[in-house]
Amino acid sequence: MSEKLATLSFSDGKPSVDFPVFSGSVGPDVIDVRALYAKTGMFTYDPGFMSTASCRSSITYIDGDEGILQYRGYPIEQLAESCDFLEVAYLILNGELPNPQQKTAFDDIVTKHSMVHEQLSRFYSGFRRDAHPMAVLCGVVGALSAFYHDSINIHDERSREISAFRLIAKLPTITAMTYKYNMGQPFMYPKNKLSYTDNFLYMMFGTPCEEYVPNPVISRAIDRILILHADHEQNASTSTVRLAGSTGANPFACISAGIASLWGPAHGGANEAVLKMLDEIGDVKNIPAFIKRVKDKDGHAMLMGFGHRVYKNYDPRAKIIQRTCHEVLEELDMKDNKLIKLAMALEKIALEDDYFIKRKLYPNVDFYSGIVYKALGIPVSMFTAIFALARTVGWIAQWKELIADTDQKIGRPRQLFTGATRRDLVPMAKRK
Length: 432
Ligand code: CMC
Prior knowledge:
This protein has about 425 residues and is mainly α. About 50% of the residues lie in helices and about 5% in strands. The protein contains 18 helices and six strands. It has helices at about 35-40, 75-80, 85-95, 100-110, 120-125, 135-145, 155-185, 195-205, 215-230, 235-245, 250-260, 270-280, 285-295, 315-330, 340-350, 355-360, 365-375, 385-405, and strands spanning about 5-10, 15-20, 30, 60-65, 70, 75. A hairpin with an 8-residue loop joins strand 1 (about 5-10) and strand 2 (about 15-20). Helix 6 (about 135-145) packs across helix 7. The protein is globular. The structure holds carboxymethyl coenzyme *A (CMC). Carboxymethyl coenzyme *A binds near residues 294, 302 and 366.
């Protein structure tokens, strides 16, 4: 029982009502309003969940004002510097960093699940070659439930475990196959001797005609990008996964729902939108005119890769990715790249502009990730698909947490109804 209470009083003389206040381990307290309707006959109104904690979670913590992001308590900067992606995936899934034996066993099991059912390869030919990779991903990941019936009993812990391994292991294969299908090149089977990230790059860029040699700087950059995107508490796609999961839907269907939600340009689709915006601006000299359009809210123009619902400070992921971006451009001898110069000039101008300062709009993770992908020759339409591959770890951890939570119920928001009240039907012949 909570000791702290919040009292809700009314201006029309109705008696006031008390609600318990809960504290987490860190972050704002929450008022438990679950009994609000029973006690008052009223709902809360909170479109966009601006002030609503939809669940309790012990996975990821963000302090948006301070620009802090932690997975299971560990600062993102330390994880991005010292760990590889699968180490971070283990942490997110299990709550603790693995010891050397646990890491070897985890890498081994993920590696051994990386191949997909051969019949799934033929599923791709139902799509147009020029289909957007996110459309293909939604379809193929949803279809996994039709291929792996044996692990969709959500009430069995071992089944949940196997689905988690399958999703984390197969997403690089499925994502790379999406790219290969798009390119008209043969699918590359995963190679178990390669690391998770090298294997993904091999399946993307290798061909049967020549030996693929991984570049350690590029592998490290992609691995770091995967770490930065692995989880981000209750964002739109994670909340979508949780909402779908609350109905008892199988994990493959839930992750497919998450992919659909991530696709939007206000969410994961922003990395693609940043590149389109930079292309549209074209030259440093055009920045002032573009910024003016954004400020005038002309034709819905927005500075893509800027702003965040939670971060009202520099997104800590953006700082790390900016450094990584410079490392990659140096390695590829692209330091004088026009795009990076344009992005940096745009960032500088925006950070000094009153419009952005007043609204606390800072660069987010997507501002620089697209430039790294572009430098590596990854087509713009694949950017959000790589985000989905990384975020699968967070989605599946959040889904597992939801299933194990005794407070969990089917997600079913209510509404403030503003439509017509009851009226009688007029026969067609009498309608004007
Ligand atoms: N460019 C111009 N103005 C902006 C921007 C932007 N990128 N973002 C917010 N604003 C303005 C907005 O118009 C509003 O102005 P006003 O007060 O005059 O009406 C004010 O800032 C507050 O914005 P909001 O829409 O209430 O903020 P929100 O928390 O609902 O939206 C957001 C957050 C991320 C959807 C939004 O900032 C945005 O659309 N940014 C561009 C897309 C983007 O980069 N998304 C990636 C997010 S990070 C990756 C991920 O986690 O998915």
